[in-house]
């Protein structure tokens, strides 16, 4: 498919090379001279050259070999991403696809399905009732427990353990709201889990809209943790159960999170930050420290506020008496 085909599909204006080939779109921060990407926010209008650039305004700084201008940005994104959407397929007569490459010392038990062009490294152990889609890369010495789903375009590093009930590579939570309801935004990215990670039971890690959701080496996720699309979690971070991280948030290295922490989308959490249990993070935490509370604050400030909350009934009574004095009503 060429840039002119996309422009025609979108009924949009094309400037530049009409024959420039369309590749799978990538996030604008990662895109280069051969890539297809989207520019819908002026803050990403950087001095850089792209392959095919779909933009909702005329860029001032960005350049493209093929520029496609459209005033319907959500519809354009959905239409283009839809061209690259994959569907997980499997065969009941051939549960391990012929195109898959599995190390000779890896035994595949019954009720396991492995898709095309997927690879499994040596000494890995796959338990029954595991589904591995196409284009999956599983390293060496990986253990995958029963009832795990691994979607297409997922990479799992060496010495990683994944416990039962976990879903890696479900669609990210992306929808375009219209007057008639919600239209699904295709999620065409992948997931990268680096080496020496541990993923607890019933964890959900969403695939990226474009690019990858990334969990870096040495990170440990407790049971029932949710990682949204395009989240990046740094090295050696530990996250306790029932924590949820919304899309496109970047968590640093050596971070510790207690249970039931909620983190909003598009935030940044500094390296070596500690977030106490049941905290709600709605703003970026750019300095290392200990944070807690609803909404999350530095620990000492949070403790002072909690101490004052305990005294609120007493302070309210004192305030009423002072008001009565000022108004001359006391006897």
User: CATH first level of the domain at 87-225: which class?
Assistant: Mainly Beta
Structural class: alpha/beta
CATH topology of the domain at 87-225: UDP N-Acetylglucosamine Acyltransferase, domain 1
Rg (CA only): 25 Å
CATH-level-4 superfamily name of the domain at 87-225 = Hexapeptide repeat proteins
Q: What amount of the residues lies in strands?
A: 25-35%
Query: What is the CATH architecture term of the domain at 87-225?
Result: 3 Solenoid
* Biggest pleated sheet: 10 strands, mixed
Q: Span from first to last CA?
A: 88 Å
Counting H and I runs of at least 4 residues, what is the number of helices?
Answer: 4
Report the count of strand segments.
34
3D shape: globular
Enumerate the spans where pLDDT stays under 50 for 5 or more consecutive residues: none
- Strand order across the largest sheet: 8-11-14-19-22-25-28-31-33-34
Mean pLDDT: 93
Give an overview of the whole structure.
There is one protein chain. By secondary structure, this protein is α/β, with parallel strands linked by helices. Among the domains are: 3-82, MurE/MurF, N-terminal domain (Udp-n-acetylmuramoylalanyl-d-glutamate--2,6- Diaminopimelate Ligase, Chain: A, domain 1), CATH 3.40.1390; 87-225, Hexapeptide repeat proteins (UDP N-Acetylglucosamine Acyltransferase, domain 1). Helix content is 14%, strand content 29%. The protein contains four helices and 34 strands. It has helices at 3-10, 73-82, 299-310, 312-326, and strands at 13-16, 36-39, 49-55, 63-69, 101-102, 113-114, 119-120, 125-126, 131-132, 137-138, 143-144, 149-150, 154-156, 161-162, 167-170, 175-178, 181-184, 190-193, 198-199, 204-206, 212-215, 220-221, 226-227, 232-233, 238-239, 244-245, 250-251, 256-257, 262-263, 268-269, 274-275, 280-281, 290-292, 297-298. Strands 8-11-14-19-22-25-28-31-33-34 form a ten-stranded mixed β-sheet. Strand 33 and strand 34 form a beta hairpin. The longest helix has 15 residues, at 312-326. The protein is globular and about 85 Å long. The model has no long low-confidence stretch (mean pLDDT 93).
């Amino acid at each position: 498919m060429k840039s002119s085909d996309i422009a025609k599909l979108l009924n949009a204006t094309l400037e530049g090379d009409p024959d420039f080939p369309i590749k799978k779109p990538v996030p604008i921060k990662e895109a280069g001279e051969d890539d297809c990407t989207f520019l819908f926010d002026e803050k990403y209008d950087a001095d850089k050259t792209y392959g095919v650039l779909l933009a909702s305004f005329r860029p001032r700084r960005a350049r493209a070999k093929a520029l496609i201008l459209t005033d319907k940005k959500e519809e354009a994104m959905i239409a283009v991403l839809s061209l690259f959407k994959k569907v997980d397929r499997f065969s009941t007569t051939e549960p391990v696809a012929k195109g898959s490459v599995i190390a000779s010392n890896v035994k595949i038990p019954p009720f396991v399905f492995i898709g095309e062009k997927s690879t499994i490294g040596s000494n890995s152990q796959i338990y029954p009732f595991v589904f591995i889609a196409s284009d999956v890369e599983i390293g060496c010495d990986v253990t995958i427990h029963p009832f795990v789903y691994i979607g297409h375009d997922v990479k799992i590093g060496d010495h990683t353990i994944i416990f039962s009930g976990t879903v890696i590579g479900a669609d990210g939570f992306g929808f375009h709201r219209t007057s008639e309801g919600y239209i699904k935004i295709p999620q065409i990215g992948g997931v990268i889990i680096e080496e020496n990670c541990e993923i607890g039971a019933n964890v959900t890690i969403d695939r990226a809209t474009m690019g990858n959701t990334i969990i870096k080496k040495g990170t440990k996720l407790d049971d029932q943790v949710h990682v949204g699309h395009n989240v990046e979690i740094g090295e050696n971070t530990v996250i306790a159960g029932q924590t949820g991280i919304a899309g496109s948030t970047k968590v640093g290295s050596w971070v510790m999170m207690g249970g039931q922490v909620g983190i909003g989308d598009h935030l940044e959490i500094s390296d070596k930050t500690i977030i106490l249990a049941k905290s709600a993070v709605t703003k970026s935490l750019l300095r290392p420290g200990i944070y807690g509370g609803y909404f999350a604050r530095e620990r000492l400030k949070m403790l002072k506020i909690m101490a004052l909350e305990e005294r609120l009934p007493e302070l309210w009574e004192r305030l009423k008496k002072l008001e009565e004095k000022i108004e001359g009503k006391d006897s």
